Amino acid sequence: MAHARTAIEKHTVAPTLVAGVDISHPERPIVEAPPHTKLDVVRYHERIGEWLVPQLAPRPIAVVKCMGGRFDDCFFQKHLSRRADEGDSPPFMRLADVADIVRTVQNGGFEFHTWGASFPRLDRPDRITLDLDPDTQLSWAALQDAASRVRTLLDELGMKSFVKTTGGKGLHFVLPITRRHTWAEAKAFARAIAVRLVQDAPSLFTATAGKDARVGRVYVDYLRNADGATAVAAYSLRARSGLPASMPIAYDELAGDDVRGAHFNIDNVEQVLAARRADPWSDYDASRQTISATMRRAVGA
Fold first, then answer.
1. How many of the other CB atoms lie within 10 Å of CB of 268?
2. What are phi and psi of 206, to 5 degrees?
3. The whole model's pTM is what?
4. Edge to edge, what strands does the sheet with 61-66 contain?
5. In Å, how far are 15, 140, 242, 244, 272 from 261, measured between CA atoms?
6. What is the SS3 assignment for 18?
7. Strands 127-134 and 171-176: what pairing?
8. Where does the pLDDT of residue 211 fall: very low under 50, low under 70, confident under 90, or very high at 90 and above?
9. Are β-strands 218-221 and 248-249 bridged in parallel, bridged antiparallel, or unpaired?
10. 3-state secondary structure at position 183
11. 67, 86, 227, 257: which could form a disulfide with 183 (CB 3.0–4.6 Å)?
12. Where in the chain is the domain with CATH 3.90.920.10?
Protein backbone atom coordinates (compact mmCIF):
# COMPACT_ATOMS: atom_id res chain seq x y z
CA MET A 1 0.00 0.00 0.00
CA ALA A 2 2.86 2.38 0.92
CA HIS A 3 4.55 1.61 -2.39
CA ALA A 4 1.33 2.43 -4.27
CA ARG A 5 1.04 5.79 -2.47
CA THR A 6 4.66 6.63 -3.36
CA ALA A 7 4.05 5.86 -7.03
CA ILE A 8 0.96 8.06 -7.10
CA GLU A 9 2.77 10.93 -5.37
CA LYS A 10 5.68 10.67 -7.82
CA HIS A 11 3.40 11.13 -10.81
CA THR A 12 1.19 13.84 -9.30
CA VAL A 13 1.83 17.20 -10.97
CA ALA A 14 1.26 20.31 -8.88
CA PRO A 15 -1.41 22.54 -10.43
CA THR A 16 -0.38 25.79 -12.11
CA LEU A 17 -2.54 28.51 -10.60
CA VAL A 18 -2.90 31.94 -12.20
CA ALA A 19 -5.31 34.43 -10.63
CA GLY A 20 -6.79 31.51 -8.72
CA VAL A 21 -7.46 29.55 -11.91
CA ASP A 22 -5.97 26.09 -12.47
CA ILE A 23 -4.19 26.12 -15.83
CA SER A 24 -4.10 22.82 -17.68
CA HIS A 25 -1.28 21.97 -20.10
CA PRO A 26 0.65 25.19 -19.28
CA GLU A 27 3.66 24.21 -21.39
CA ARG A 28 1.63 23.50 -24.54
CA PRO A 29 3.24 25.40 -27.44
CA ILE A 30 1.14 27.93 -29.31
CA VAL A 31 1.00 27.09 -33.00
CA GLU A 32 2.38 29.87 -35.25
CA ALA A 33 3.68 31.78 -32.26
CA PRO A 34 6.90 30.04 -31.14
CA PRO A 35 8.41 29.97 -28.64
CA HIS A 36 5.33 30.96 -26.64
CA THR A 37 3.36 28.55 -24.49
CA LYS A 38 -0.17 28.53 -23.17
CA LEU A 39 1.18 29.73 -19.82
CA ASP A 40 2.84 32.71 -21.55
CA VAL A 41 -0.54 33.73 -22.94
CA VAL A 42 -2.26 33.27 -19.58
CA ARG A 43 0.43 35.26 -17.77
CA TYR A 44 0.11 38.10 -20.29
CA HIS A 45 -3.55 38.49 -19.42
CA GLU A 46 -2.82 38.36 -15.71
CA ARG A 47 -0.13 41.04 -15.93
CA ILE A 48 -2.07 43.28 -18.31
CA GLY A 49 -5.27 42.87 -16.33
CA GLU A 50 -5.36 46.39 -14.87
CA TRP A 51 -5.51 47.74 -18.43
CA LEU A 52 -7.67 45.06 -20.00
CA VAL A 53 -10.40 44.70 -17.37
CA PRO A 54 -11.73 48.29 -17.84
CA GLN A 55 -12.04 47.57 -21.57
CA LEU A 56 -14.00 44.34 -21.06
CA ALA A 57 -15.96 44.48 -17.81
CA PRO A 58 -18.57 47.09 -18.80
CA ARG A 59 -19.50 45.47 -22.13
CA PRO A 60 -20.85 42.28 -23.68
CA ILE A 61 -17.92 40.22 -24.93
CA ALA A 62 -17.26 37.98 -27.89
CA VAL A 63 -14.23 35.69 -27.85
CA VAL A 64 -12.15 34.10 -30.57
CA LYS A 65 -11.26 30.64 -29.28
CA CYS A 66 -8.50 28.49 -30.72
CA MET A 67 -8.63 25.07 -29.15
CA GLY A 68 -5.32 23.47 -28.37
CA GLY A 69 -3.53 26.69 -29.29
CA ARG A 70 -4.06 25.99 -32.99
CA PHE A 71 -4.72 29.09 -35.07
CA ASP A 72 -6.19 26.93 -37.85
CA ASP A 73 -8.91 25.73 -35.48
CA CYS A 74 -10.55 28.94 -34.23
CA PHE A 75 -14.15 30.01 -33.85
CA PHE A 76 -16.07 33.09 -32.71
CA GLN A 77 -18.17 32.76 -29.54
CA LYS A 78 -20.61 35.58 -28.78
CA HIS A 79 -22.77 34.04 -26.06
CA LEU A 80 -22.51 31.68 -23.15
CA SER A 81 -23.98 28.23 -23.61
CA ARG A 82 -27.74 28.44 -23.22
CA ARG A 83 -29.62 26.33 -20.70
CA ALA A 84 -33.01 24.88 -21.54
CA ASP A 85 -34.78 27.19 -19.07
CA GLU A 86 -33.32 30.40 -20.50
CA GLY A 87 -35.57 30.76 -23.53
CA ASP A 88 -34.48 31.61 -27.04
CA SER A 89 -32.03 34.42 -26.20
CA PRO A 90 -28.68 33.11 -24.93
CA PRO A 91 -27.07 35.17 -22.14
CA PHE A 92 -24.42 37.73 -23.00
CA MET A 93 -20.86 36.87 -22.20
CA ARG A 94 -19.51 39.15 -19.47
CA LEU A 95 -16.06 39.16 -17.86
CA ALA A 96 -15.86 41.02 -14.55
CA ASP A 97 -12.25 40.61 -13.44
CA VAL A 98 -8.83 39.14 -14.17
CA ALA A 99 -9.91 35.69 -12.95
CA ASP A 100 -12.75 35.67 -15.49
CA ILE A 101 -10.33 36.63 -18.26
CA VAL A 102 -7.76 34.02 -17.24
CA ARG A 103 -10.49 31.38 -17.03
CA THR A 104 -11.53 32.23 -20.60
CA VAL A 105 -7.93 31.96 -21.83
CA GLN A 106 -7.58 28.64 -20.01
CA ASN A 107 -10.57 27.45 -22.03
CA GLY A 108 -9.07 28.43 -25.38
CA GLY A 109 -9.73 32.18 -25.61
CA PHE A 110 -7.22 34.29 -27.54
CA GLU A 111 -9.02 37.40 -28.74
CA PHE A 112 -11.54 39.60 -26.92
CA HIS A 113 -14.03 41.69 -28.87
CA THR A 114 -16.49 44.16 -27.34
CA TRP A 115 -19.83 45.73 -28.16
CA GLY A 116 -20.17 49.44 -28.80
CA ALA A 117 -22.55 49.68 -25.82
CA SER A 118 -22.14 48.98 -22.13
CA PHE A 119 -24.37 47.58 -19.42
CA PRO A 120 -27.15 48.21 -18.56
CA ARG A 121 -28.15 50.28 -21.63
CA LEU A 122 -27.33 47.90 -24.45
CA ASP A 123 -29.95 49.64 -26.57
CA ARG A 124 -27.85 52.83 -26.65
CA PRO A 125 -24.28 52.77 -28.05
CA ASP A 126 -21.64 54.75 -26.18
CA ARG A 127 -18.93 54.70 -28.84
CA ILE A 128 -18.48 54.82 -32.59
CA THR A 129 -15.66 52.81 -34.17
CA LEU A 130 -14.28 53.65 -37.60
CA ASP A 131 -12.24 50.69 -38.79
CA LEU A 132 -9.63 51.63 -41.39
CA ASP A 133 -9.01 48.36 -43.24
CA PRO A 134 -6.43 48.86 -46.00
CA ASP A 135 -5.77 46.67 -49.00
CA THR A 136 -2.88 44.35 -48.13
CA GLN A 137 -0.74 45.94 -50.85
CA LEU A 138 -1.19 49.46 -49.53
CA SER A 139 1.89 51.08 -48.01
CA TRP A 140 2.23 52.42 -44.48
CA ALA A 141 2.62 55.90 -45.98
CA ALA A 142 -0.77 55.56 -47.67
CA LEU A 143 -2.41 54.49 -44.40
CA GLN A 144 -0.71 57.40 -42.63
CA ASP A 145 -2.28 59.72 -45.20
CA ALA A 146 -5.68 58.09 -44.69
CA ALA A 147 -5.42 58.37 -40.90
CA SER A 148 -4.46 62.03 -41.17
CA ARG A 149 -7.50 62.72 -43.34
CA VAL A 150 -9.80 60.93 -40.90
CA ARG A 151 -8.46 62.90 -37.97
CA THR A 152 -8.77 66.18 -39.88
CA LEU A 153 -12.40 65.49 -40.71
CA LEU A 154 -13.21 64.52 -37.12
CA ASP A 155 -11.49 67.66 -35.86
CA GLU A 156 -13.53 69.74 -38.30
CA LEU A 157 -16.68 68.13 -36.92
CA GLY A 158 -15.53 68.96 -33.40
CA MET A 159 -15.40 65.30 -32.41
CA LYS A 160 -12.88 63.98 -29.93
CA SER A 161 -11.35 60.73 -31.17
CA PHE A 162 -8.86 58.12 -30.01
CA VAL A 163 -6.77 55.78 -32.13
CA LYS A 164 -5.45 52.27 -31.63
CA THR A 165 -3.81 49.56 -33.65
CA THR A 166 -5.82 46.45 -34.37
CA GLY A 167 -2.99 43.92 -34.27
CA GLY A 168 -3.70 43.45 -37.97
CA LYS A 169 -3.16 45.68 -40.98
CA GLY A 170 -5.48 48.51 -40.00
CA LEU A 171 -6.33 51.13 -37.38
CA HIS A 172 -9.37 51.91 -35.27
CA PHE A 173 -10.62 55.44 -34.63
CA VAL A 174 -12.84 55.34 -31.54
CA LEU A 175 -15.27 58.15 -30.73
CA PRO A 176 -16.84 58.09 -27.24
CA ILE A 177 -20.45 59.29 -27.36
CA THR A 178 -23.23 59.91 -24.89
CA ARG A 179 -26.04 57.38 -24.60
CA ARG A 180 -28.52 59.64 -26.36
CA HIS A 181 -28.46 57.97 -29.75
CA THR A 182 -29.99 54.81 -31.14
CA TRP A 183 -27.94 52.18 -32.90
CA ALA A 184 -29.46 53.29 -36.21
CA GLU A 185 -28.44 56.90 -35.59
CA ALA A 186 -24.89 55.99 -34.63
CA LYS A 187 -24.48 53.71 -37.64
CA ALA A 188 -25.95 56.32 -40.01
CA PHE A 189 -23.53 58.95 -38.71
CA ALA A 190 -20.56 56.58 -39.05
CA ARG A 191 -21.65 55.75 -42.60
CA ALA A 192 -21.93 59.45 -43.45
CA ILE A 193 -18.36 60.00 -42.24
CA ALA A 194 -17.17 57.10 -44.39
CA VAL A 195 -19.02 58.42 -47.46
CA ARG A 196 -17.62 61.91 -46.90
CA LEU A 197 -14.08 60.51 -46.79
CA VAL A 198 -14.72 58.72 -50.09
CA GLN A 199 -16.07 61.91 -51.66
CA ASP A 200 -13.00 63.86 -50.56
CA ALA A 201 -10.45 61.22 -51.63
CA PRO A 202 -12.06 58.59 -53.89
CA SER A 203 -8.72 57.12 -54.95
CA LEU A 204 -7.77 56.48 -51.32
CA PHE A 205 -11.00 55.46 -49.55
CA THR A 206 -13.93 53.16 -50.15
CA ALA A 207 -17.06 52.61 -48.08
CA THR A 208 -17.95 49.44 -50.02
CA ALA A 209 -17.08 46.09 -48.47
CA GLY A 210 -16.59 44.18 -51.73
CA LYS A 211 -13.08 42.98 -52.55
CA ASP A 212 -12.98 44.73 -55.91
CA ALA A 213 -13.75 48.08 -54.30
CA ARG A 214 -10.93 47.65 -51.78
CA VAL A 215 -8.12 47.20 -54.31
CA GLY A 216 -5.54 49.92 -53.65
CA ARG A 217 -7.81 51.64 -51.13
CA VAL A 218 -8.64 51.86 -47.44
CA TYR A 219 -12.04 50.43 -46.60
CA VAL A 220 -13.76 52.55 -43.93
CA ASP A 221 -15.77 49.88 -42.14
CA TYR A 222 -18.68 51.66 -40.45
CA LEU A 223 -20.62 48.41 -39.98
CA ARG A 224 -18.85 47.94 -36.63
CA ASN A 225 -21.54 50.28 -35.31
CA ALA A 226 -24.54 48.02 -35.87
CA ASP A 227 -26.48 46.60 -32.94
CA GLY A 228 -24.58 43.54 -31.70
CA ALA A 229 -21.48 44.16 -33.84
CA THR A 230 -18.10 44.01 -32.13
CA ALA A 231 -14.55 45.31 -32.49
CA VAL A 232 -11.36 43.91 -31.02
CA ALA A 233 -10.70 45.33 -27.56
CA ALA A 234 -7.72 47.47 -26.69
CA TYR A 235 -4.86 45.34 -25.28
CA SER A 236 -6.37 42.12 -26.65
CA LEU A 237 -3.99 39.71 -28.33
CA ARG A 238 -4.75 38.47 -31.83
CA ALA A 239 -4.64 34.81 -32.84
CA ARG A 240 -1.91 35.39 -35.39
CA SER A 241 1.77 34.70 -35.81
CA GLY A 242 3.79 36.67 -33.27
CA LEU A 243 0.72 37.20 -31.05
CA PRO A 244 0.23 40.89 -31.87
CA ALA A 245 -1.87 43.13 -29.61
CA SER A 246 -4.39 45.88 -30.27
CA MET A 247 -2.75 48.93 -28.71
CA PRO A 248 -3.99 52.44 -27.88
CA ILE A 249 -1.54 54.98 -29.24
CA ALA A 250 -1.10 58.73 -29.37
CA TYR A 251 -1.72 60.44 -32.69
CA ASP A 252 1.89 61.52 -32.99
CA GLU A 253 2.93 57.85 -33.02
CA LEU A 254 1.31 57.56 -36.45
CA ALA A 255 3.99 59.88 -37.85
CA GLY A 256 6.76 57.36 -37.20
CA ASP A 257 7.45 53.75 -38.11
CA ASP A 258 4.74 51.29 -39.08
CA VAL A 259 2.87 50.33 -35.90
CA ARG A 260 0.63 47.70 -37.47
CA GLY A 261 0.76 43.93 -37.21
CA ALA A 262 3.00 42.59 -34.47
CA HIS A 263 4.72 45.92 -33.77
CA PHE A 264 2.96 45.63 -30.40
CA ASN A 265 2.86 42.06 -29.16
CA ILE A 266 2.75 39.71 -26.21
CA ASP A 267 6.42 40.37 -25.45
CA ASN A 268 6.53 44.17 -25.44
CA VAL A 269 3.15 45.60 -24.41
CA GLU A 270 4.12 45.81 -20.74
CA GLN A 271 7.39 47.55 -21.55
CA VAL A 272 5.62 50.04 -23.81
CA LEU A 273 3.10 50.87 -21.10
CA ALA A 274 5.82 51.22 -18.46
CA ALA A 275 7.84 53.56 -20.68
CA ARG A 276 4.96 55.92 -21.43
CA ARG A 277 4.83 59.24 -19.63
CA ALA A 278 1.07 59.44 -20.16
CA ASP A 279 -1.78 57.20 -21.22
CA PRO A 280 -2.96 58.48 -24.64
CA TRP A 281 -6.50 57.36 -23.74
CA SER A 282 -6.50 58.83 -20.22
CA ASP A 283 -9.34 61.28 -20.92
CA TYR A 284 -11.47 58.81 -22.90
CA ASP A 285 -14.30 58.61 -20.35
CA ALA A 286 -14.36 62.39 -19.92
CA SER A 287 -14.67 62.91 -23.68
CA ARG A 288 -18.17 61.58 -24.29
CA GLN A 289 -19.91 63.77 -26.83
CA THR A 290 -23.30 64.15 -28.40
CA ILE A 291 -23.77 63.90 -32.16
CA SER A 292 -25.26 67.29 -32.90
CA ALA A 293 -27.49 68.35 -35.77
CA THR A 294 -24.63 70.53 -37.00
CA MET A 295 -22.32 67.51 -37.15
CA ARG A 296 -24.91 65.52 -39.06
CA ARG A 297 -25.45 68.29 -41.59
CA ALA A 298 -21.70 68.66 -42.10
CA VAL A 299 -21.44 65.09 -43.38
CA GLY A 300 -24.90 64.81 -44.89
CA ALA A 301 -26.23 62.36 -42.31
1. 14
2. -140, 145
3. 0.91
4. 74-77, 61-66, 109-115, 230-232
5. 34, 11, 9, 6, 16
6. strand
7. antiparallel
8. confident
9. unpaired
10. helix
11. 227
12. 123-232+239-301
